[in-house]
Amino acid sequence: MKTKKGTMKKSQMTLDALDQKETCEFIPAVSIVPRKWDKWFWTLFTEDADFSFGDNNRSLITAERFADHCRDLDLVENSSRKEVDKFMTMLTELDQTYIDLEN
Predict the structure, then answer these.
(1) pTM for this structure?
(2) Who has the most CB within 10 Å: 2, 14, 42, 96?
(3) What is the pLDDT of residue 4?
(4) Read out DSSP for the chain?
(5) What is the pLDDT of residue 3?
């Protein structure tokens, strides 16, 4: 139903749903993975992952879960121990912060 100003009037059911809206903070995964790892990291990361992502607007996992999966990967094969340790420390410190795998 349109109002006099031409905007759509929301139904009570819509208004009730909007009252339940929550927000979620996250960090895009591409913001935390070093750019120089792009050629190999994502292929390695997606192998045997116990979560799925792709073709979504958002796929959120905690940094803790992201780190757990990375611990199972041989990241040092493609990067230095120092870089990998720095990356893993960051993930540990982010803990329950959400990481968006889609962006």
Answers:
(1) 0.78
(2) 42
(3) 61
(4) -B-TTSPBPPPHHHHHHHHT-----EEEHHHHS-GGGTTTHHHHHHTT-SS--SSSS--EEEHHHHHHHHHTS-GGGTS-HHHHHHHHHHHHHHTT-EEETT-
(5) 54
How many percent of the chain have pLDDT more than 70?
Answer: 93
Number of domains the chain contains = 1
Domain membership flag for residue 71:
yes
> Is pLDDT of 2 > 60?
no
In a domain, 12, yes or no: no
Residue 4 lies in a domain: no
d(CA 42, CA 65): 16
